[in-house]
# Entry
Amino acid sequence: MPDFSPEDNKLALKVVFYGPALSGKTTNLMQLHSLLNPERKGELMVLETRDDRTLFFDMLPIGLRSRSGLDLRLKLYTVPGQVQHDSTRKAVLSRADGVVFVADSQVAQQDNNAIAFGNLEENLDKVGLDIDTLPMVVQFNKRDLPAVVDEAELQARWAGTPWAPLAMASALQGTGVIETFQALLDRLYTGIDAEFDLVGKHGIDRATFIGRLSASHGVGDA
Amino acid sequence: MRNFEDDPTLSDLLDPDQLQRLSNGLSALCREPVMISEARSGDAVPVEFNLETVGWLGGGASAGEREAAAELVSFLMLFVAKYRLAANIHHDTTEASYAELQRQNEALRASEAKYRELSDQLQQKVDEQVAVIRQAQQELYESARLRSVGHLAAGVAHEINNPVGFISSNLRVARDYVQNLEPLLAETAENRELLEDFNDLLSESIEGTDRIARIVADLKTFSSIDQADNALCDLNSLLRSACHLVQTEYDHRLNITENLAELPRIPGHPSRLSQTLFNLLDNAAQAVGDDGRILVRTLADNTSIQVIIQDNGCGIPEAVRSQVFDAFFTTRPVGSGTGLGLTVARDTVRAHSGQLTLDSQEGAGTRVVLTLPVKQGS
# Structure
């Protein structure tokens, strides 16, 4: 849930990158860290890893300050994908405002995607969130690999869900990562604006919200 | 409680000694001493961590020096914070796991308690069943004994019936002969007395044989040897036989008043019903002693038959009233009662879908009401 502190005029939002092990959650975050150039960007904190696998979580804070003085923060987290870190996943997921589900496009990984999605649904339920109303984007990563499920087939399969259309990405190549993030910002904005009147009180409309938080190097939109 | 993700303050990240040591180190590098504190002062520059201003760095010889020192502190903060965040989330998840374990433990304990209770209930049921089986065995034994006694009685009755029959008919013939002899004898006082005496002897003997015949008939009814296990029973005739038998047991000293209404015949088990009526009458007889009265009444309506056996005897003390139907409960001296009379009576009545109710007042008497349903089509 959004964390608003009126005394600092600060609104903190939390986005969690969820998904099966080795689907590229941390890679997504690292790409966002190097590609994005929002107004304010903190350090990418990669907490402990072992054999390049996330043990706790990674975190990237970004933010903007509106003309009204609103200090809007977005903290992007990843969870450890490995099955045994479920309690950490649950802790990171609690109070999330949005989720990016990073799925692995490889044919052999489809079962793992389904298991991780089920785990997400279950953990959301445990932390008191509803998967049907929480802003969420489903990204199919690793499109650059050879044995991946056809995009048309994936889109057709997810067409009836609230998460269509899917985002396609190759995080390692840096493609689709910002688009995924922008799709999430778009879905996130609706609820936040309804609750905090971003456009009325702070002059932040949808395009500003998405544009300023996902500004990338070279095409900065101030 | 703070969440692991809450933005840390300067004092969360470094304790005062560490902060002092950091300030000292930086001061040694700068041309002028620098100070790090949580409060803003003068020309201090912000020390940022994760977009958050965690403290202010003042002092130094120039703005450039302050900027460089603040940057260095921010850089250090990153690593301190990493450790802090990891430790926090580890703490959070450990607590959550522990809470979950405790919850599971609680659930486990609850389910264990439930199973223990179930096991206790099961044990209780087993005990109850064992008691039922034991009682059924006793009843079976009793009824087998009753049956063999009945067989014996019926056998004896059958054997006695024939001689009693011809003795009785011979006696009647003999009495006729005596009447025939009367005119042939000389009319003397001695002869008349002899004849009268002879006549009386024969009449008494005839009466005796009639009584024997009646007892034999009652025994046969009681043992129901010539009836099937399930037959249409005439409760009045069973009751009369039982009364006669009880009278026989008590040398005809009992004052029994019978007030029997017309009853429909009901399907049932005649020998068991007889035994039941006998038990109830026997109880009444024991309660009244020599000078009480026993009232036996039958009533009928469309749906049921009632047999009421009432006495004005000693009654049942309140303390034991709840136990009288318990198997082997008896107030009589050892050897004289089995403690099964009422138990068998109640079970028999239940087996006939009826009811047995007992109403007693100590010193005033006891009233037993036996209600049996009149079945449709019978």
Observations:
- Helices of chain A lie at 25-35, 86-93, 110-126, 151-158, 177-196, 198-202, 206-213.
- The two ends of chain A are 27 Å apart (CA to CA).
